[in-house]
């Protein structure tokens, strides 16, 4: 049984792409150790999209048309995913997205017709969560927004503006920047001069590190918040620790009280060996994605045609006890996103480690989190 896998294994997004690969490899390894699917081993057919949309599309066409994989788990970058979606849709091939969070990934096609599913919190969930944290929990009214000029940054920025507007707020400053930007100190100082009480930044690891460094250099004392890539080890390392106290949305946070989660982290570290593992979230969600797809294959009795897998995922007959959470009916014919806002946490960098911001969240993390409305 051939499992297609597409993520950036080189280039600027290789940090979380390789973390996702390690999660997929571990899942395949453990599944094969207990017999695969009915004695058939799983084979991971991996492709490097280099975080480039055209490379991602070539990889998608190769896996679907040439390798004829049974299903595909893939994409870390929203723009890369969007370039390839029609390949899977046209050929009715099941795509499970474990990392990319851009809202458009699962909104491009109506769920009832779509062969695209996602096992990561989409940006509308993350943006709503971040705005709620700033405006409702912390009662801050003056927020500056920073976003890169990629499709990911654009989508996140639009989501943030929408949720701020729903709170009756407008950003005091919006800063756009290109990937690879060397410094944003002047822009942070400008936001500070505009009266910003907090900064919400939407970008990927290296650029979020640049913003964290700029915040420190500008002596901006307000909170810095961002979506899940703020948790990448790249952010801590490249900012030389300036990310201390930066907060981000997470689906999983290391938790010594959760035996299943800590066992997974230990197994993942053993599997990785000397390879860097920069994103627990990318690895864990991808691990769960492979296992969840196998659950769907068992439900279809081995039928890996897109329509059969789609019907199984939309009507899973048993909960899947994953390492991120237990997914109980994560999808339906009207909804191909597994996460709602009640299923994510606020984490922060403390002395180079990710921890829960709120102690109560750590206590709740072991409880089954069901999607809102189910």
Automatic annotation (TrEMBL):
Pfam entry (one): Peripla_BP_6
Name recorded for this polypeptide: ABC transporter substrate-binding protein
Protein family membership: Belongs to the leucine-binding protein family.
SUPFAM superfamilies: Periplasmic binding protein-like I (SSF53822)
InterPro entries, per database record: BCAA_transport (IPR051010), Leu-bd (IPR028081), Leu_Ile_Val-bd (IPR000709), Peripla_BP_I (IPR028082)
Keywords: Amino-acid transport, Signal, Transport
CDD domains (UniProt xref): PBP1_ABC_ligand_binding-like
Domain Leucine-binding protein span(s) in chain numbering: 2-352
